[in-house]
């Protein structure tokens, strides 16, 4: 299900009962209930396998509330897209999703080194399943910095980094 509208009507009742993927493009406001309660009326949150949040202003608090209604979030959520993550949110993402395979996000360029250290650390066991990391909207000059960081620090050996279409992969 792809949700793009900014205002959600609260009169649906499991209108899409078989949905297992949810994309949210805007941090929408509901008329009465919370975002989670409204979505719970439209879809069965327990069935979600893929969650895509394509808005930078979607609060981490709302994400956590949304995840409370899903089934075993450690097993199910393997793919997350967020438009923007800040350094303080990375530990929450790592803790909530230890089986995370794919992470696509934008970050504050000043936090690139710290975020790469956190996500690619050999000693950080919770990110061992991370297969693909895409950091969007990063100038190409940061590619060299990222390569040097990966080679010089105690970071994963079996990773490569490339600059493709305005982002690090």
Automatic annotation (TrEMBL):
This is Uncharacterized protein. It comes from Rotaria sordida.
């Amino acid at each position: 299900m792809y949700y793009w509208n900014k205002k959600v009507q609260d009169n649906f009742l499991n209108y899409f009962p078989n949905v297992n993927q949810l994309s949210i493009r805007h941090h929408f406001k509901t008329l009465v209930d919370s975002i989670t309660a409204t979505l719970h009326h439209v879809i069965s949150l327990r069935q979600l396998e893929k969650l895509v949040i394509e808005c930078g202003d979607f609060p981490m608090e709302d994400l956590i509330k949304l995840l409370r209604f899903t089934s075993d979030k450690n097993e199910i959520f393997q793919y997350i897209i967020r438009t923007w993550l800040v350094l303080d949110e990375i530990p929450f993402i790592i803790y909530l999703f230890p089986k995370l395979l794919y992470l696509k996000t934008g970050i504050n360029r000043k936090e690139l080194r710290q975020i790469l250290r956190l996500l690619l650390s050999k000693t950080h066991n919770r990110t061992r399943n991370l297969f693909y990391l895409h950091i969007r909207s990063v100038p190409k000059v940061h590619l060299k910095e990222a390569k040097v960081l990966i080679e010089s620090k105690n970071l994963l050996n079996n990773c490569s980094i490339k600059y493709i279409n305005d982002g690090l992969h």
